[in-house]
Amino acid sequence: MDTQPQTAAGKVLMHFAISLDGFVAGPGHTMDFMAGMTVRPGLHDEYIQTTGAVLAGRDGYDSAIGDSRPYGGAWQGPIFVLTHHPEDARPSEDITFLSCDVPEAVRIGLEAAQGKNLEIFSPTIGKQALELGLVDEIDLHLAPVLLGDGIRLYDAPGSKPVRLAMVGDAAKRAVNLRYRPEPAS
Ligand SMILES: NC(=O)c1ccc[n+]([C@@H]2O[C@H](COP(=O)([O-])OP(=O)(O)OC[C@H]3O[C@@H](n4cnc5c(N)ncnc54)[C@H](OP(=O)(O)O)[C@@H]3O)[C@@H](O)[C@H]2O)c1
Fold first, then answer.
1. Which residue ranges have their beta carbon within 6 Å of ligand 1?
2. N or C, where is the chain less crowded by C-beta within 10 Å?
């Protein structure tokens, strides 16, 4: 089972690789849970072709994006980092720091994406955008691992459930998955 190919349509996506228990990073923003993870042929290229701009948060920038680039550098385009205090951000010539509200950040990102999609690379900003009705899709690549701790995709204790429908499938169908534990390496 897999999703329809992604298309460039001026959409706002939350886009993450995620552990089976719902974390997009481990404790301390570690990303090594993705090591060795494979995806179906062509998947990365779909996102590289359809992404026009990236919106990230300050913690993600400070912990990872400052040193690395989306899609291992295979994607080129405008990257925006939202922060309340851009003045102490480590400057980078291809990154624009924004200090504004989320709707304005999304508007700027979509304009920069020029008809392609804006990818939100931050659960914190994604949650705010979702609550504001600004998210068109949540695109996830489920890694076969349990982390137990880290940065959650959606960290909102006490909130109401956010109902979702599978893109391209009208039914509110559960996805069936079967895993077996692997020996520890
Ligand atoms: N698994 C994946 O595919 C994937 C992809 C991308 C990112 N990630 C991970 O996702 C994690 C991101 O973590 P996160 O969501 O906890 O942090 P984050 O969004 O990267 O950073 C949070 C910070 O962003 C700024 N911010 C957020 N909302 C704001 C607003 N409305 N106005 C102004 N500034 C705002 C604030 O910075 P200030 O404190 O400076 O104001 C806030 O403290 C990282 O670990 C990253 O590696 C994973």
1. 16-17, 24-25, 29, 31, 56-60, 63-64, 82-85, 102, 121-125, 128, 151
2. C
> Atom 11 of ligand 1 has which residue's CA nearest to it?
60
* DSSP reduced 3-state for 50: helix
Domain residue spans of the chain: 12-32+39-152
Helix (H, G, I), strand (E, B) or coil at 52: strand
Residue 88 CA to ligand 1 center (angstroms) comes to: 16
For residue 82, report the distance from its CA to the centre of ligand 1, in Å.
8
What residue owns the CA closest to ligand 1's atom 42? 58
Q: Are the C-beta atoms of residues 139 and 74 closer than 8 Å to each other?
A: no
For residue 174, give both structure tokens: 């559960």
Give the three-state DSSP class for 167.
coil
Dist. CA 141–CA 145, nearest whole Å: 12
Identify the CATH number of the domain defined by range 12-32+39-152: 3.40.430.10
User: Could you say which residues of the chain have pLDDT below 50?
Assistant: none
pLDDT value at residue 66: 62
- Count of all residues that appear for the chain in the document: 185
Cα 56 to averaged position of ligand 1 atoms, centre (Å): 6
Q: What does the pLDDT read at residue 159?
A: 92
Task: Output the CA 130–ligand 1 centroid distance in Å.
Answer: 15
pTM summary value? 0.96
